[in-house]
Amino acid sequence: MTQDPHTLYKLIVLYMLNRVTFPLTRAQITDYILDREYTNYMNLQTVFAQLCDSNMILEKTVRNRTQLFITEEGEDTLHFFENRISPDIKKDIDSYLNEKSMSLKNEVSIIGEYFKSTEGEYKAHLVAREKTQTLVDITLSVPTEDIAASICEKWERNNQDIYQYLVEQLF
Length: 171
What we know:
single chain; alpha+beta; 3-stranded antiparallel beta sheet; 23% strand
């Protein structure tokens, strides 16, 4: 029985999201699928849109990253049709996720975003999460957008050192 390639791509996305305990970003899934040349970028964007439209995944945009979450409908669909993903593809996905787990998780667990407040200054909002637990959630008020952007960039690069420093100083 032949299947529509888009169906396979949807199942791959659902399978990937179901195999991790943290959200993956569109970019992370796109990198995986394009690196293996399963499809092209435009087809994959169609797949993401269809999965969202059918409530199989939820999207949440944080700064310039779109995080994806599998929904209950997505889990049910995967349960019924998972056998349509070849064992080789599943094995490759599992291997990829095991190998890249820490770097993938770090990308979505560390958030640095900024915004202009109603008072006119900028707020840099810095968050570090582990699974569903928030480890650090700090908001700093700063006078300019450049400073806020710089703080967010440094947070994303140096969050482990900053977290350790806070723990050492506060405990």
